[in-house]
Amino acid sequence: SAKRAGRGRYRFYDASLNTGNVEAFHLEQGFAEALRSHQFVLQFQPLVHLDSGRIDGYEALVRWRHPHYGLLYPDRFIAVAERSGFIVSLGQEVLRLACEQLAQWHEAGLETSVAVNVSALQLAQPEFADTVLELLAGLSLPAQRLELEITETAILQRESPALDNLHRLRVAGIGVSLDDFGQGYAGFAHLQALPLTRLKIDRSLIAQLSNSHDDSLIVSTTIILAKRLKLQVVAEGVETREQRVHLRLAGCDLAQGYHFSRPMDAEAVPAFEEDFNAEKVKVPS
Ligand code: C2E
Ligand code: MG
Ligand code: MG
Ligand code: MG
């Protein structure tokens, strides 16, 4: 179409008019320095077992303390990092930060686990599995304490080393969660072929739980099928007690969301564990 042809031709002209592109340009220019001066930080959000009420572990979520834009959330910069290829270095930094935090918690007597989001390009690096295993070995961390969260797009390209990496990491004992399930292609057909341990049901499906019969059917069907595949099921974005009860009855194993806790700084985690466990004793669900 003419619009499509024009996009390439007027690329620089467009960029100067579009604040989104200007921001993307500035962010991209700042990536390398941000890495050098440790502007990327992690927050942690708990995953809770619905039956026991026990905390399973924490998902690490990256934030960027930007000198001009303030605290940036991933929706603002992950796509830019993916387009520029910087996501590979950023992903490596996130893995390192997450594992170092985990080692620190273990040293302090807090035995937990951490889940790290991995993007398609990162997983497709031939040396990805080696890098992860070396990182764990260097910190004397058991592989069972680390989980990787991937999305369907990461494993759709059959020609990439992504699947090899996943198999190697699974054999080593690292957990692999399929993130945002139900948001994209949502095909069950190829799930069986993937070395997964968990399925995370996307927040958009959980949000509909109490007001749409169709979506509750999709959620319960997803839970049943996931169990047939011997996968643990995690509900994302659980915000209400009603959703929590519904999910528990539907057989969902774990949940994550504002109902339990917003993502928090690492320093807040030990106190959160104490309060959460004390609360559980006082008010059994
Ligand atoms: P995700 O992996 O699906 O992470 C869950 C997102 O949902 C997080 O947003 C979290 O703060 C948010 N969330 C959790 N509970 C609730 C809830 O009850 N209600 C609502 N409305 N939201 C909730 P966040 O931290 O902004 O991250 C967004 C996405 O950015 C992540 O989605 C993930 O895809 C990506 N991301 C985050 N950190 C990394 C990273 O280190 N590497 C890569 N490649 N992607 C990352
Ligand atoms: Mg995730
Ligand atoms: Mg998700
Ligand atoms: Mg999501």
Automatic annotation (TrEMBL):
Keywords: Coiled coil, Membrane, Transmembrane, Transmembrane helix. Residues 24-277 form the EAL domain. The lineage of its organism: Bacteria, Pseudomonadati, Pseudomonadota, Gammaproteobacteria, Pseudomonadales. The chain holds residues 489 to 773 of 773 of the full protein. It comes from the Bacteria. This is GGDEF-domain containing protein.
